[in-house]
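Hi team,

As requested, here is the filled-out complex form for the S-adenosylmethionine run. I kept the field names the same as last time so the parser does not choke. Let me know if anything looks off before we queue the next batch.

— J.
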Amino acid sequence: MNVRAVAAQVIYQVVDQGQSLSAALPPAQQKVAPRDGALLQEICYGVLRWLPRLESITQSLMDKPLKGKQRVFHHLILVGLYQISFMRIPAHAAVAETVDATKVLKKPQLRGLVNAVLRSYQRQQETLDAAAVAHDAGKYGHPSWLLKLLQKAYPEQWEQVVEANHEKAPMWLRVNRTHHTRDSYRALLTENGIDTDVHSDAEDALKLASPCDVTALPGFADGWVSVQDAAAQLSINYLQPQSGELILDCCAAPGGKTCHILEHKADANVVAMDVDATRLLRVKENLQRLQLNAQVICGDARYPADWWQGEQFDRILLDAPCSATGVIRRHPDIKWLRRADDIDQLVALQSEILDAMWAQLKSGGTMVYATCSITPQENSEQVKAFLARTSDATLVTGTADRPGRQILPGEENMDGFYYAELKKA
Ligand SMILES: C[S@@+](CC[C@H](N)C(=O)[O-])C[C@H]1O[C@@H](n2cnc3c(N)ncnc32)[C@H](O)[C@@H]1O
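And here is what came back:
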């Protein structure tokens, strides 16, 4: 099927129907020829990265917006504009292919409209681009509520954060240390013509010079290596699991951190729990591929009495549900699926889970609170409030004023992440 037509459908599903890109894109990949997979991904990611700019140009070029069943053609126009504006595809080819997509989308009568809009963009590109970046949303490609939040939270760094959110994320590997040291696996990759870099404190991490299919990685099927951002791998540095301990990975799916714990301490007694039964299947698959063992439980972290009658835990990793504002470079749809008031709801949920899980931690135990968010409300402010209401909690990471460690996206090529290590008296 025509790649542009499929891209327009994916963007329609995300922007108009609220589906996540990670749900909409994989089935769409099946509809295009394998050689077009990368192009489809590039167009979908690109349009979602620069949505307000493309919307603003479209608005200038059309008298009235397309509605109802014609909405997919609105997104097809965005697909065309993105190619002309941001890609190295020759403009005439981009226009021709995009206009051709109207046939596949079964409304050939809209061919003329799509053609006219794209051609008039070509003619007036400079003026229209200048007008589109005259407002902040168009210039920075973020919704204004998020932009304001970032400006307030990071007065010095917000522009850097916004820029990092537009970058293509690198592919990081986590070497399974039960099979290879990081350096011996790195040598194996070099022998296979795959160049990598190391990370200063994520000891198992390797960054690929350019992403590749996992099947090209030696021993992937046998569990020698996993794909995981270096920021997520830092959880092990804070959790520091020990042999024989009872450890809860709370909110564990799809199980990246559960497996990392077991790669470090295969004889730890690890419980992986999550509320989402479907996502827990991924935990089981990962454990199986890596030949590791954990007890996998489906339950709601707010109500541990419903799923845990055992003893209290020595360590708890609480990788909380969050706004995922630290991983926008991997999931640009987050910018359009999240709303400002989601943050307050998430903060309330996180704080309920924190309190419920704290009660399940042994005296002397360690809890690591983590998110892949960069909003202070979910991170430093959340932990500050927790410390203020929890007399037996001591902060190990950061200062009372700025508890925890906030990693911003792009820092050492990592995703945005937050960690706070807490100790129970
Ligand atoms: C950030 S993801 C976890 C990623 C995972 N720790 C990893 O490293 O692969 C957050 C998880 O929280 C789960 N979740 C959301 N609300 C929950 C709740 N009330 N109780 C338990 N899990 C919950 C979601 O299903 C999701 O899998």
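Two things worth flagging: The pocket of S-adenosylmethionine is lined by residues 232, 251-257, 274-276, 279, 300-302, 319, 321, 372 (CB under 6 Å). The longest strand covers residues 361-371.

Thanks,
J.
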